[in-house]
Amino acid sequence: MYAIVRAGGRQEKVSVGDVLTIDKVAVKAGESVEFPALLLVDGDKVTSDAEKLAKVTVKAEVVESAKGPKITIIKYKNKTGYRKRQGHRQPLTRVKVTAIEA
């Protein structure tokens, strides 16, 4: 059994026991989070009806907060002396899927 859920602005394929890295969620480690299901696959049965999916909840437990890889942004314009350097690390959250309840 697996589900497609919306997590942090993206769609993720999850099943029970999976550990996901999603955009930051303002929840502390050890607490639980629920995601809305967009599609549910249980063996041969595929559920995509919005009314049935409204009853489906995907529960996950927050494992830790993390940061993504360092990204370096460099802007340069020739012959003008313009240079700009900037860095960024995206805040992320790791969650472990604990249950898919239909």
How would you sum up this structure, described in words?
The protein has 102 residues and is mainly β. The chain has one domain (2-101). Helix content is 4%, strand content 65%. It contains one helix and nine strands, in the order βββββαββββ. It has one helix spanning 50-53; strands spanning 2-7, 10-14, 19-23, 32-42, 45-47, 57-67, 71-77, 82-88, 91-101. The protein is elongated and about 65 Å long. The model has no long low-confidence stretch (mean pLDDT 94). Belongs to the bacterial ribosomal protein bL21 family. Keywords: Ribonucleoprotein, Ribosomal protein, RNA-binding, rRNA-binding. It holds the Pfam family Ribosomal_L21p. One of its GO terms (molecular function) is structural constituent of ribosome.
Work out the helicity level.
under 10%
Total count of domains: 1
Distance between the termini: 11 Å
Largest sheet: 7 strands, antiparallel
Give the number of helices. 1
Structural class: mainly beta
- Return the average pLDDT rounded to an integer: 94
Rg, alpha carbons = 19 Å
Stretches where pLDDT is under 50 for at least 5 consecutive residues are: none
* Overall geometry: elongated
Please state roughly what percent of the residues sit in beta strands, choosing from under 5%, 5-15%, 15-25%, 25-35%, 35-45% or over 45%.
over 45%
The counted number of beta strands is 9
Elements, N to C (H/E): EEEEEHEEEE
